[in-house]
Amino acid sequence: ILDSFNDLYTSYVIFCTLLMSVVILVISIFNAEFYTVVPSIPCSRLALIGKIIHPQQVIHSVVHAVMGMLVAWCAAVMTKGKFQFLAVPCTPPESLDDAVPQMCLNEYHLFFLLSGAFMGYSYSLLYLINNMNYLPFPIIQQYKYLRFRRSLPLLIKHSCVESLYFVRNFCAAYYFFGYIPKVWISTTMDLHIDRKLHPLDTLTGLLDISLFYHAWLCGVFLLITWYIAWLLFKIYATETHHFPIQPTFAEETDQCLPKILNSNPPLIIKFLALQDLMLLSQYSPVRRQEVFSLSQPGGHPHNWTAVSRECLSLLSDLTQRLITQQEAAAANGRAKQPAGELKGSPQAPGAVVQEDMSFQSPRSNIPRASMSSLVKSSLMPLKTSPGSDVGSPFSSPALNCKMGILDVSSPWHGSVQSPRVMRRGPKLWTSGSDLQMNGSHHESFPVLSAARVGSEAVQPSFIYTWLQNKQEQIKNFLSKRVLIMYFFSKHPEASIQAVFSDAQMHMWALEGLSHLVAASFTEDQFGVVQTTLPAILNTLLTLQEVVDRHFKLPHVSSKPPRISGSLVDTSYKTLRFALRASLKTALYRITTVFGEHLNAVQVSTEHKKRLQQFLEYKE
Amino acid sequence: SGSATIPSLKHRLQRNVAAVAWKPLCASILAVACQSCVLVWHLDPTSLSTRPSSGCAQVLSYPGHSPVTSLAWAPSGELLLSASPVDTAMLVWDVSTENCVQLQWFGGGGVTYLAWSPDGSKVLAATPSAVFRVWEAQMWTCERWPTIKGRCQVGRGLFPPTQGGYRRGGADGVFLKLPREMQGQVGGSKTASIVADLSETTFETLYGEERIGGEVHSMVWDPTGERLAVILRGFFSPPPAPKIPLPAGRRGTVIAVFRTRNSPIFELLPCGCLRGERGARPQLIAFHPCFGKGALLTV
């Protein structure tokens, strides 16, 4: 032990420690650059690939790989065993004619460095895939030290397990590709490969326990330090910030809550402001009084107006977004639209494509257009039988072809399948590439023949429609290509999550607003809330209707599987359920506090009926 | 609600149900504490089905947290606390995202009883030992309150419906009053004082000697904060007819009703006793939450 303490003071160690701190600094800079409060959810495989090869992500991966290599180098140097140097003298040959001792490549050192680089790269890839740049806000507030201490055991356990996986993957990679860096280094640095020792990229070479152990230990150290940096960043960034409501000093005017809510600050500031609103509405009567206060000398409730206007506009925004989504989903079953914009429809690509494939192989000589219509008409009655279902988008279509049957694995929650749902075709990038496939084929021919006849009077629009139809044809053709479908198909669960990805803001707005309204029943001296009560109730009830309707769409009400005890936070996947629950609780809160007095508020008759349901606890 | 159908809830994980709690500010969510998990049922209040499918139940489980014996919903309806007597961590669940936060402490066993204060700012957690913890719900820090009389076990705890101190009933019939705290901080364990001693006493009545008092089994406060009802298990008090001989050592239960006042000072005045038929034992009592004409107690 004394020896190791002595070792601590050597310059090597100090240099390595400095290098490590530089590494951590760089990692933290990357954490701070890349964070987001709204997760970006790739909706299709192509989007995921696009995310991986995005230049920002490439830089992230390369830098992490380099950092990993640095950490591994420091670890190798500090271990001082056989790993220490890249070049070691070769074992002398047995023959008596002694050549000059040459420098050989120390393969262990190389293995170490490469394993560090590999781990850095895998960390960066996992960071991307698990959306680790997403900052989830905690469900309960706790002091920072307690939060850190609570997450530490899980972090350590996770690092150990993950390091094991990384080392295993790296051993496999080295076995296959290890000779490339070996040869490259030995030629560039003019080192020789030692013939006497076992080369490492063989099975016997790799089954070295001590090597495995050292690599694993290095990986654990690397992951622990990087995860701790990430965790500390998360804890500090999501700490609640206290925004004053009434500015006491002139320079604080820009920081006060109503101003921030109404301007367009960076998203994290807006999130923190809304979280603060939520907390003050529940726990702080003094600040609530400030919200309900009137301005001097005009007597206008500026604070309340600002807060309520912002919350209501957020909620109406969400309502609008959901309505647009629902209309797109509904319209996909009807006639195609001329503009070919991306429709984010939460629909699995139809089994239509799969049936086409299964029928095409024996009858490939039949022209495709008529064939598809034949297939379509013969399959319609088959598909409208209840219980059969469109296949999940990620099951390989080729497998379905071989089985030749409809894929009945339904991620749906037992909802009733309407025939219209069945007929929806693959949703690529327009809404038109579906049932009207055969229709478009037939239409394109008369259009083309009309083109040949040539009516010059309608030239511009005719060319436009001709181009459109050609586009449709190409898209229909491509949509039958299984590979293209594989990449472009939109994963329904991911699309749904993407719509609700910033729902945390809306949840806080709902809670803050409803708590303030409930508190105003006893605390509002000037009645500032009462004038906005109809607007608030209208917005909340409309949002409730739209959310209920949205949950009737396929896939929306099924919960993604939950993995408990994992380090990465996947709460963004279930934000829609939290939003629905919080909306209901907000409405109940208002109706419970106001009770029968709500009948005096001016709302439309259907809303009145719904409020009555809430009052009777029948919702 | 006036409908004649009474749904029954069955689920394969629903074993050894120890506690059941409706979510506040909601008409359709019920949390059930089972042997290995917490089941949250999402029911439709207007549906006529008598057997909701087990797909309506959400399973909240956490390794090491079983059997779950006490549940408490936050009054604002967003968080569910679950506790187990063998787990030294209390779980705070966000039910819709199925995320939980563990609040751990070291030593002292699990939690036998949970109670929220009605304003949602404090949580009382009683342990099997002679210690209980009070958590404040804004930053979730806790304070240990050792009981004054060392050996006694915490049976029940209660928060008054209005702002103010809270009280705790012990197993040997002692009421502790814990004083008003500053907002957001839990403090004052040194200034707790005994408010009422409900251990056994005998006193004379018109009908002869009566013995009342003993163990506090449970207590409830009415929503206006004016009446407190306590189930006391003690020795059998003689019936009005003094000639009937008493079997020795038989325990009976009585419900003592107190009149309480929280301001300007805390006052607890006994105002009567309720006794059921011979052999009947009250198990659960509750006040009607919205009774307009006073306090209505159901036994």
TrEMBL record, chain A:
Localisation: Nucleus membrane; Nucleus, Nuclear pore complex
Transmembrane segments: 12-38, 58-78, 108-129, 154-177, 211-233
PANTHER family the record matches: NUCLEOPORIN NDC1
InterPro entries, sorted: Nucleoporin_prot_Ndc1/Nup
Region annotation (Disordered) ranges: 329-349
Record's keyword terms, sorted: Membrane, mRNA transport, Nuclear pore complex, Nucleus, Protein transport, Translocation, Transmembrane, Transmembrane helix, Transport
Record's protein name: Nucleoporin NDC1
Biological role stated in the UniProt entry: Component of the nuclear pore complex (NPC), which plays a key role in de novo assembly and insertion of NPC in the nuclear envelope. Required for NPC and nuclear envelope assembly, possibly by forming a link between the nuclear envelope membrane and soluble nucleoporins, thereby anchoring the NPC in the membrane.
Family statement: Belongs to the NDC1 family.
UniProt entry tagged with the keyword Transport: yes
Biological process terms in GO annotation: mRNA transport; nuclear pore organization; protein transport
Pfam families in the cross-refs: Ndc1_Nup
GO MF annotation terms: protein-macromolecule adaptor activity
Record membrane topology: Multi-pass membrane protein
Domain of life: Eukaryota
Gene Ontology, cellular component aspect: nuclear membrane; nuclear pore transmembrane ring
TrEMBL record, chain B:
Transmembrane segments: none
Database matches in InterPro entries: Aladin (IPR045139), Beta-prop_Aladin (IPR057403), WD40/YVTN_repeat-like_dom_sf (IPR015943), WD40_repeat_dom_sf (IPR036322), WD40_rpt (IPR001680)
One Pfam family this sequence matches: Beta-prop_Aladin
Matches recorded under SUPFAM superfamilies: WD40 repeat-like (SSF50978)
Protein name in UniProt: Aladin
Organism per entry: Pterocles gutturalis (yellow-throated sandgrouse)
Cross-referenced SMART domains: WD40
Gene Ontology annotations of biological process type: nucleocytoplasmic transport
